[in-house]
């Protein structure tokens, strides 16, 4: 299945992805509207984009009390906002912390109808849309990267 | 609500004496005349901070301003200006930085933050949208920038908050302490950290969740796509990606204007060791970027061997890299990285700090100072122990550091010697380009409203050394010949106006100006798409000219005139012996005359005339300067 894959060594933390996502969905700019977010730690130079990975058996499906969420064939999580009661269970259930609440409702990556804008506009091609397995949990992957630095000698 | 596209629409005013917090509406007139960022700051500073006040008193005010492009995906729109009356220079203080702070100010709902008065207890200001808190900061006392960042994030329980921090040097009253964001992003020049700490503010934390909207979304997206294509295909793109501004170091050496041993020479024979290329090849581990930057040119390094093995951080840029190598005769890049890291942690301007060290090393070389006067330090060029010890002594005002902590000019006055070797204009220590090899830059340092610095004009086009460029732009072929003293008035005034506009819109000058992307013409289209306001290229240039004149008027009010616009004697009288800029000195008077003429300023005094101020709509400024007997009341 095609997923957004993070090339962590290329991400510079510029957050262009967040801005493109926000603008693409609303014609407005705000990190609050973005479905992708970059976790940063300036001391160790960490930049790590986090978004929905369309996991098979996504854990929020079983955690939604009103069955407002469903998963489409391409893995995208669909929220039926007419059923959503804004309980926030989905935010807690996602192991990637990829769900955000905006104006009281969850917003989740929708892959921009299979042409993700963040991938198109990433200045360093740190995001790639390709066939891939579900990734490790984000910070574990980053730790691997850090270890590689230390092995550079 | 009165809504502006591109702008957040509000000014946040915090009075530390009364603990009162006011939120004011942004006025359209301010936008039309000053655009944002530096323009807003300079205007308010002129209006609200009267002449003669002590910069380190409750009368001084701090302005943190950002621009209309910030918060959108306009590439590189990530910057803010911080301004106040400077404790280092006694005139307009102002510094600009990137990173990830500026957009939070906008998302929180503000275009400018004003800090007034003084708190008796150390505090930090926490801004979360419209929720503003003055929080106890006693636990932050004397913590370095890194420690403060960590302590703030723990205190708030939020690692994603952005911080703006004054280091321990600021708390010790070192006159050239900066403010730092994202740990290593410094608004380092003119002592803005010193003012912040004097007000009892150790730091500002900020997080915004709001929205920025633009007037013409589709058109704006199209312009941004065009500009990004220009960036990606620009001849400087790869070099900037790999080296950022450190790519300049080797270039400066080849052209013979790399300040060496306190500007005694213009070239080094160890350039490969201290170059941006060496940094990129042997130290860098990844690129990092400011907000919304599509180049990103910042780099994260790690020292992999030697005495400083294991040190890692973001940076440095050309100025500190050059300052902590050739300027002080240091051949060891690892030592420069260590010294720069120390400056960042302690919160001092690496440029002025290195200038103090270079000055002292020259005094030592000329046998004008004995080692017993400096607590036994060996002041030979490049000495590791002296460099690292002096940085710490300056930051804490320990021993001889106390003499240096007010900058080189005051240090020379205190010692009663060495004035002619202080490399400063208006008490701001110079940057890393010898004006004998770049005459337009030299004129820029002479007249810059904040003192000896290049970022008020940066007429980079001089580096082309191509008379055809000068003919095309200004009809003056000499203007773009780097060793020519002629034609520089027209060159520098043009670039000053341009820089003032860039500093007010708040994208990155390195990209938008040096790569010739955000011209006056382009700005006109961009401003309209973002704000809906139509301004012609000429009107936009007028904004730049207005800002430059107003800032000069701030200086004039504090006593600045032509006599203060001279470079150190070395550049006017001594020729460089080696390299591609040897055999020439700066003809200061020719350049100043041309410049004042271009600006419509009085040739004798170097002050704006009534006519010029009136033309720019600065009638009240003109009236005040006439009343103060600074300018003549003639039509």
Main traits of this protein?
heterodimer, A: 153 residues, alpha+beta, two-stranded antiparallel ribbon, 5 helices, 25% helix, 21% strand, globular, B: 635 residues, Aldehyde Ferredoxin Oxidoreductase,  A, domain 1, Aldehyde Ferredoxin Oxidoreductase Protein, subunit A, domain 2, Aldehyde Ferredoxin Oxidoreductase Protein, subunit A, domain 3, 3 domains, six-stranded mixed β-sheet, 40% helix
Structure description:
The complex is a heterodimer of chains A (153) and B (635). By secondary structure, chain A is α+β, with helices and mostly antiparallel strands. Chain A has a domain at 2-52 and 98-150. Chain A has five helices and eight strands; from the N terminus they run βαββαββαββαβα. In chain A, the strands form four sheets. Chain A has a two-stranded antiparallel ribbon with strand order 1-8. A two-stranded antiparallel ribbon of chain A has the order 2-3. In chain A, strands 4-5 form a two-stranded antiparallel sheet. The longest helix of chain A is centred in the C-terminal third of the chain and has 13 residues, at 138-150. Chain A starts with a strand and ends with a helix. The mean pLDDT of chain A is 90. Chain B is globular. In chain B, helix 2 crosses helix 20 (488-505). Chain B has 635 residues and is of the alpha+beta class. In chain B, strand 7 (123-128) and strand 8 form a beta hairpin. Chain B has three domains: 10-207, Aldehyde ferredoxin oxidoreductase, N-terminal domain (Aldehyde Ferredoxin Oxidoreductase,  A, domain 1), CATH 3.60.9; 260-424, Orthogonal Bundle (Aldehyde Ferredoxin Oxidoreductase Protein, subunit A, domain 2); 435-563 and 579-627, Aldehyde Ferredoxin Oxidoreductase Protein, subunit A, domain 3, CATH 1.10.599. Chain B has 27 helices and 17 strands. In chain B, the strands form four sheets. Chain B has a six-stranded mixed sheet with strand order 2-1-6-3-4-5, with helices on both faces. The longest helix of chain B is centred in the last third of the chain and has 21 residues, at 537-557. Chain A binds chain B through residues 9-10, 12-16, 19-20, 23, 27-33, 39-45, 47, 121, 123-124, 149, 152-153, and chain B through 71-73, 100, 107, 146, 149-150, 159-160, 182-184, 209-214, 217, 221, 228, 232, 285-296, 298, 300, 302, 304-305, 312, 314.
């Amino acid at each position: 299945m095609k997923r957004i894959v993070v090339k962590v060594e290329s991400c510079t933390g510029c957050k262009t992805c967040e801005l493109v996502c926000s603008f693409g969905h609303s014609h407005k700019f705000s990190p609050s509207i973005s479905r992708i977010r970059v976790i940063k730690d300036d001391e160790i130079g960490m930049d790590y984009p986090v978004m929905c990975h369309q996991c098979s058996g996504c854990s929020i499906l079983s955690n939604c009390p009103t069955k407002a969420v469903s998963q489409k064939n391409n893995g995208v999580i669909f929220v039926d906002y007419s059923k959503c009661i804004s309980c926030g269970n989905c935010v807690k259930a996602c192991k990637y912390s990829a769900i955000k609440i905006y104006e009281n409702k969850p917003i989740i990556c929708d892959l921009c109808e299979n042409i993700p804008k963040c991938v198109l506009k990433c200045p360093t091609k740190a995001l790639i849309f390709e066939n891939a397995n579900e990734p490790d949990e984000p910070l574990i992957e980053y730790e691997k990267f850090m270890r590689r630095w230390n092995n550079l000698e | 609500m009165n809504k502006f596209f591109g702008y957040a629409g509000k000014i946040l005013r915090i009075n530390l004496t009364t603990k009162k917090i006011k939120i004011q509406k942004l006025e359209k007139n301010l936008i039309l005349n000053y655009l944002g960022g530096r323009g807003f700051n300079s205007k308010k500073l002129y209006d609200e901070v009267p002449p003669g006040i002590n910069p380190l008193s409750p009368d001084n005010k701090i302005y943190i301003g950002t621009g209309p492009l910030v918060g959108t995906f306009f590439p590189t729109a990530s910057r803010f200006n911080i301004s106040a009356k400077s404790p280092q220079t006694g005139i307009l203080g102002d510094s600009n930085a990137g990173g990830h702070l500026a957009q939070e100010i906008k998302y929180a709902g503000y275009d400018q933050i004003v800090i007034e008065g003084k708190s008796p207890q150390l505090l930090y200001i926490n801004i979360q949208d419209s929720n503003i808190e003055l929080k106890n900061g006693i636990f932050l006392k004397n913590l370095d920038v890194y420690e403060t960042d960590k302590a703030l994030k723990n205190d708030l329980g939020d690692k994603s908050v952005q911080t703006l921090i004054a280091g321990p040097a600021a708390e010790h009253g070192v006159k050239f302490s900066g403010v730092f964001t994202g740990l290593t992003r410094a608004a380092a020049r003119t002592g803005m950290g010193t003012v912040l700490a004097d007000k009892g503010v150790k730091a500002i934390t900020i997080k915004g969740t709001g929205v920025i909207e633009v007037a013409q979304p589709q058109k704006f997206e199209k312009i941004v796509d065009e500009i990004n294509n220009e960036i990606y295909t620009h001849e400087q793109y790869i070099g900037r990606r790999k080296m950022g501004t450190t790519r300049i170091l080797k270039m400066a050496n080849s052209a013979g204007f790399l300040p060496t041993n306190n500007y005694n020479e213009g070239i080094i024979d160890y350039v490969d060791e201290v170059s941006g290329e060496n940094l990129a090849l042997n130290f860098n581990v990844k690129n990092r970027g400011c907000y919304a930057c599509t180049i990103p040119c910042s780099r994260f390094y790690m020292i992999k061997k030697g005495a400083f093995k294991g040190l890692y951080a973001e940076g440095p840029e050309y100025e500190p890299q050059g300052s902590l190598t050739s300027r002080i005769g240091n051949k060891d890049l690892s030592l420069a990285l260590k010294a720069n890291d120390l400056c960042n942690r302690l919160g001092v301007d690496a440029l002025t700090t290195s200038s103090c060290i270079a000055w002292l090393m020259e005094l030592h070389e000329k046998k004008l100072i004995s080692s017993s006067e400096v607590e036994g330090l060996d002041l030979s060029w490049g000495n590791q122990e002296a460099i690292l010890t002096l940085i710490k002594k300056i930051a804490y005002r320990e021993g001889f550091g106390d003499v240096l902590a007010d900058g080189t000019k005051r240090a020379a006055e205190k010692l009663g010697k060495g004035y002619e070797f202080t490399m400063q204009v208006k008490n701001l220590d110079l940057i890393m380009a010898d004006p004998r090899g770049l005459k337009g830059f030299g004129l820029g340092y002479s007249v810059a409203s904040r003192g000896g610095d290049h970022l008020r004009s940066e007429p980079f086009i001089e580096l082309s050394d191509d008379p055809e460029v000068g003919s095309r732009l200004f009809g003056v072929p000499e203007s773009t010949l780097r060793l020519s003293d002629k034609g520089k008035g027209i060159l520098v005034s043009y670039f000053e106006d341009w820089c003032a506009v860039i500093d007010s819109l708040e994208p990155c000058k390195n990209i938008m100006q040096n790569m010739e992307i955000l011209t006056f013409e382009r700005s006109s289209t961009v401003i309209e798409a973002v704000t809906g306001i139509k301004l012609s290229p000429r009107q936009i240039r007028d904004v730049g000219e207005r800002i430059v004149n107003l800032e000069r008027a701030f200086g004039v009010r504090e006593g600045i005139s032509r006599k203060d616009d001279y470079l150190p004697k070395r550049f006017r009288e001594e020729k460089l012996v080696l390299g591609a800029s040897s055999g020439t000195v700066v003809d200061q008077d020719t350049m100043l005359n041309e410049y004042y003429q271009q600006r419509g300023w009085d040739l004798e005094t170097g002050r704006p005339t009534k006519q010029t101020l009136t033309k720019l709509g600065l009638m009240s400024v003109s009236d005040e300067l006439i009343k103060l007997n600074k300018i003549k009341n003639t039509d």
